[in-house]
Structure formats: C-alpha cells, structure tokens
Amino acid sequence: MKRLLLLIPLLLTLFLIPQQATAATVACTTPTFQSSSTNQRLTSLFTNYGNDNSRHDDWTGADGTYSVRLPNGRELWVFSDTFLGQVNADGTRPKVVEEGGTTVFLNNSFAVENAGKLRTIYGGTPGSPAALMPPRDKNHWYWAGDATVAGNLVEVTFQEYERFGTGAWDWRWHRNVVARFPVGNLSQPVSVHDLPSGKGVAWASGILKDGGYTYVYGVEDQGATKHMHLARVQGQSLVGTWEYRKADGTWSPNEADSARLMNGVANEYSVTKIGDAYVLITHDTTEALSARIVAYSSCSPTGPFTNKQLLYTTPETGGNIFTYNAHAHPYAAGNGLVVSYNVNSFVNTDHYNDVSIYRPRFIDVRFG
C-alpha cells in the first residue's frame, strides 16, 4: 500500500553508525537487558480482533501502533495506514476498494481498548469511512506520531506528507500538526494546531513526560541518514512554547538551533524511564532492513544514549517480509517494557494472501 511504497527507498539505504552528542553525565543505574518474549495478550488481542467478522467496517490490520492510557482507564491505540473490512475464512483479505475489492484503506485510525475488547474509530460514516485526520486533497495525507494526554484532551501528533509530481517517488514530508480530541469523544478533533516544522524534523517519534516537561523526540529523515532531534515544552500540553536541544547541551527557543543528537534511530522510537535511567528503544537502522530491535540508555532524557544492547530479532524478517518501527508503550511494570513492532511486505499481494502480515507484534522486554 502507499505507506509500504514510500518506505521501500528508505529501508534499502539504512547504513548508519550512531554518533552521540557529548553532554554532562549524571550517575544512574544502567538497565541491563535480561530477556524478551512474545506478549501473548496483546498479540492475540489484535489477531483475534482482526479476524472477527462480526462487523465489516472495523480494523483488520495496520501499522504505526502508538498507544496512550486515557484518564478513564481505557487504552487508545493510534494507527497510521489501516485496513478496514472483513477477513475470509482461509485467512485472505479482499482487495482494497481502489483495486475493485471491498477492503477500505485509510491513512490513520484509532482503536480503543476497554476491558480487553477493541473498537475501531475512523472518520466519515460506516458506509463511507474516512481517515480521522482527512487529507486536504488527493495529494496530501497524514500519518500518526505519538500521543499524550493533557487534562481532558488527547493530543495526537500527525505528520502531513505531500506529492509534488507524477513520479512514484515524487513525495515529501510537509509539516507537523497536533490534533486535540476530547477523552469522551474521540471521533473527531475539536482543534488542530500547527507544530514546529521549519527544520525538516518529523515530530513526534516519541513523547516522554518527565520532571515537569513533555519531551518530544523527532527524526530528521534523509533516507540513508536518520538523525534524532529533541524538543520540550513545559507542562502537559504540546500546545505551548517549545525549546530545542542544542549540540552544546543547552536549550534554545529557536527551532533552527535543534541539533542532530545521534543517528541509528528509526522513524518511530521511544524513550522510557526505568528506575533512575532512560531507555531508548528502536529498530536498528545501522544496517539495512534490520531484524534487530535494540536499546540504548542514558542517565538523562536528553542523552547521550549509549550502551547499545540487542533486545530481540524479529522472526518474521526474510524474503518479501520486513519489520520496522519498534518502540515501547507507556506502561512499564518494574524493570519491564512492552514493545511493539510492525510487519510488512515488499509485495502488495502478500497483504491480501495473508492477513497476519500487516499487524503489530508485541514483546515483553525485561531489564535487570
């Protein structure tokens, strides 16, 4: 699908060596990787939901896979490219509407988990579904970034992409926005706000609340080079005054001063506090089409992130199949994290022949 086609040229050119920015260090206990295993509950939850044909206008597969816990105890799952429809008894998926089938394909959607059950949220109507963040025209679309809660509002970041020509690769990132949804009504945003977009950084690959600040991690994606950037805003909301991490370890109110802090991260990654340390989890983009999910650690949310550790090698990777965009979810238990990753194929018809491909996988990662 569109997201797959846009990922291919980037995935084929990922040969980078991480470079760390220097900063003052603070003593902390560095988490040491112990083990990883499949998170059966979440993997089964989405597998069973995707295969359930009790409705024909809900989720059968997606990528992106961000989550945020709502004040009412529910879990909001935020997806980018999404299939809606039914699954055939033999594990196949009808073609998308644009190819003469019945499967709806959207660039973004939500799913709400409540007491172990999922419900899909999309825009438009059941008879004519649309993306929750609909494009302004046929040459633009939104993919989702991380989300956060500010009071009774859920703030979900989106990156807008645009086409500028007729060629297959005539597309580019355009800007960042944040859409604000009431916790009690997630069907459409009450407002959409521009986010900083003058540096070519896609905000937010990950969000972390710590010490009175909301830290926003981004990626400057140059295809063969992906650089981490970092911003922060005081308080809980992204709709505020941003400041940007400079190479010298200070903060600036000017986005132009935002520094390339390291490379080797993916377009989606996470930073999570474990004990008194901070763990960055990402697919390893120091090698092409990597099956490796790795962690770095720091004593500060600003880095530098070092001590690279291999957490997991995705078993699906190989042949047509690739995996990407691993990151942790914001409900760590003790020294453990729940990590998701996405599975995809270079061959479009694979998504019709095997519905299990285009669904998130979840693993439990434990540190000592």
TrEMBL record:
The keyword rRNA-binding does not apply. Pfam families: DUF4185 (PF13810). Keywords: Signal. It comes from the Bacteria. Residues 1-23 form the signal peptide. Residues 204-338 form the DUF4185 domain. InterPro entries: DUF4185. This is DUF4185 domain-containing protein.
